[in-house]
Amino acid sequence: MTTAPAATESLWCFPHARWTARLKELSPVYQQAKPFPHIHLADFLDATAAQAAAGEFPESSSDAWIQYKHFNENKSGLAKRELFPEMLGRMVDELNSPEFLEWLSKLTGIQGLVADPSLEGGGLHQSSRGGFLNLHTDFTMHHHNKNWKRRINLIVYLNPGWDPSWGGAIELWDAHMKECCASVSPLLNHALIFSTVDPSYHGFPEKLRCPEGVSRKSVALYYYTIENDPALVGRSTNYQARPTDSKTKSALIWLDKKAVHLYSRAKEKFGISDHTASKVLDFFSRKK
């Protein structure tokens, strides 16, 4: 079994020395970015590691994959670290390591970041032709660690040969949902890091136009700070319609958002698994 590198060793998948040397340049770019703090980094991982991770990315055909299929999204996810192929597992371990957390804190200016070994809501993601993810702000508190506040998203794309005409670029929208302010195409070894401030609207709302047999693949990791404020109240994923969406579509986005909220509360209270939740969300979606 592949294990994470010791904290005293240099990371391999993530070229720590190269990116540390650029922190003075990159940190103000991140913290001053609009519509919310973010940065898009090309050649994020070691090139050999990125190619290997992309090559071993598994198909989403096994029962271990969660099918996020309801009105506001159509994608699959695998959060069980023990099922990841070797290179993908090592990559996730490194990006959850103390060394990487230290680098991420310096980039973002957020101290005390902690990784989530359970990969709640994250891990491996992929969407096939017709897949999409409506614009949204993420849930604000960890579903099972009640005092963990979500602070940072890291998305690493693993799509060799991706044609931008297929769509799939993640869009970042302003707080008033008036316009898209930035977008990042899901190209191999490109990464997007952003702060999950409220709001931080993002998604890829247009259905993918990639050929059959091709999918949009990414690794999503979320980072938290541990808060001791009893007044903090979590909020579930907040989906929003675009200005160009019809009244009917906007209403359905809102209704589906309410279903997601109900399941988020049930998940926290009763420990419902993502597998069960995704099945029930699909039921609600078909009922609508």
In short:
The chain has 288 residues and is α+β, with helices and mostly antiparallel strands. The chain has helices at residues 16-20, 23-32, 47-55, 86-95, 98-108, 247-270, 274-287; strands spanning 38-41, 66-70, 73-78, 114-115, 123-128, 132-137, 148-157, 170-173, 180-184, 191-195, 202-204, 215-226, 238-239. The chain contains seven helices and 13 strands.
Whole-number mean pLDDT? 90
* E-strand count: 13
The CATH topology assignment is Jelly Rolls
Query: How many helices does DSSP assign?
Result: 7
- Compute the CA-based radius of gyration: 18 Å
- Give the termini distance in whole angstroms: 45 Å
How many separate domains make up the residues?
A: 1
Identify the CATH homologous superfamily. q2cbj1_9rhob like domain
- By CATH, the architecture is named Sandwich
Major sheet: size, sense and barrel closure?
13 strands, antiparallel
State the name of the first-level CATH class.
Mainly Beta
Order of helices and strands: HHEHEEHHEEEEEEEEEEHH
Report the helical percentage.
25-40%
Strand content: 15-25%
Shape: globular
Low-confidence stretches: 1-8
The secondary structure category is alpha+beta
Supply database-style keywords.
288 residues; alpha+beta; Jelly Rolls; 7 helices; disordered N terminus
What can you tell me about this protein's structure?
The protein has 288 residues and is of the alpha+beta class. It has one domain: q2cbj1_9rhob like domain (Jelly Rolls), CATH 2.60.120.620. It is 29% helix and 24% strand. It contains 7 helices and 13 strands. Strands 1, 2, 3, 4, 5, 6, 7, 8, 9, 10, 11, 12 and 13 form a 13-stranded antiparallel β-sheet that branches. A hairpin with a 6-residue loop joins β8 and β9. α2 crosses α5 and α3 packs across α4. The chain starts with 15 loop residues before the first helix and ends with a helix. The N terminus is likely disordered.
